[in-house]
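Appendix B. One record, verbatim.
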Amino acid sequence: MRYDDYIHQRFQPFIDSSDIETVDEILRLYSVNTSAAVTPELCVTSLVSDMRATCPLDEMTRVAASVSQSPIFRFQVCEIAEILSKLYRCYGMDGC
């Protein structure tokens, strides 16, 4: 199955049928780029990670900042450390 078809199949049921642009926006934000070694698997992993962790943390940070007198700081790791990739290989997770 092609990446575009997979994303449409998975997300279209959750989006209003008249709002096909939303799925196209997902594809634009999480696009496959073979020249930069951005695989479909990496795109889906990034998308799911954003949906399950990044977006909820953004919202929680926004709410905390709105009720706090002190600044709220949030750090986001954008790179996989080499030590983590070695750890994944150690536990045989590199083939997932």
